[in-house]
Design brief:
mainly alpha; Ribonuclease 3; Double Stranded RNA Binding Domain; Ribonuclease iii, N-terminal Endonuclease Domain, Chain A; globular; metal-binding
């Protein structure tokens, strides 16, 4: 693999062009590729890090959007393959829910932060100054673009090997945590079985627009249950419903519905 790692850039990322991005192994993403013995072309790596806002400010450079399109397909193949092989008893609907949870924007953003992708993304000045380096949607899109760059550089089998290394554990965790379950529906079904009113949700948002957090509590039988924090209102409500389902299951010795 070629020498260096895209160096961390300041919040005014548009001051550097793709040719200024260095490539050394200090970046966790490149260190992982090195560990796995997977190569990536430096020019494709730079392209994968080129957000459209940067490309526009630099006079119309190519963007990472085509690589993102390719990487999205590679990711879907890898995760679907693992679900099919590892969980032979799961029906299509269950696998689809798990896959959606694992490849969601929130999940990809979380992985991108772990791999320190954000500081390497080349953004226009406006996007950078409004928190773009930690915006979940940008992190998710760039992660997919990096997978696309890996596929073009080293071929589909190697790109899938990277996907399996990164995402198989996330699938396993999703299975353990019930990430493929619609917890709000499950909670509603449990409430119906217990003869209590349909649950409601208390949600409060906080933080800047680019890093918004939501805290939700399910109100069941007139009492607010344990709180869950998420990056979106939907995620927070699902988490709060999950906590409420587990509480009701323990208290009433009920089986959790397969929603």
């Amino acid at each position: 693999m070629s020498g260096s790692s895209p160096s961390q850039q300041g919040r005014g990322g548009a001051n550097q062009g793709p040719e200024a991005v260095s490539l050394d192994g200090s970046w966790p993403f490149l260190a992982l590729l090195e560990e796995l013995g997977i190569g990536i072309d430096p020019q494709l790596l730079r392209l994968a890090l080129t957000h459209r806002s940067y490309a526009f400010e630099m006079g119309g450079l190519p963007t990472n959007e085509r690589l993102e399109f390719l990487g999205d397909a590679v990711l879907e193949i890898g995760v679907t393959d693992y679900l099919y092989r590892a969980f032979p008893d799961y029906p299509e609907g269950r696998m689809a829910k798990l896959r959606a949870a694992v490849v969601s924007t929130v999940s990809l953003g979380r992985l991108a932060r772990r791999l320190e992708i954000g500081p390497r993304v080349m953004l226009g000045k406006g996007e950078a100054h409004t928190g773009g380096h930690d915006r979940t949607s940008i992190l998710a899109d760039t992660t997919e673009a990096l997978l696309g760059a890996t596929e073009l550089s080293s071929g589909l089998p190697e790109a899938l090997r990277l996907v399996h290394h990164l995402f198989d554990p996330l699938v396993d965790e999703a299975v353990r945590s019930g990430a493929g379950t619609d917890w709000k529906t499950a909670l509603q079904e449990m409430c119906a079985e217990l003869g209590i009113e349909v649950p409601e949700y208390q949600v409060n948002g906080s933080g800047p627009d680019h890093n918004r957090r939501y805290e939700a509590r399910a109100v069941v039988d007139g009492r607010a249950r344990a709180a869950c924090v998420g990056h979106s209102k939907k995620e927070a409500e699902q988490g709060a419903a999950h906590l409420a389902v587990e509480e009701l299951s323990r208290r009433h010795q009920m089986t959790i519905p397969d929603a």
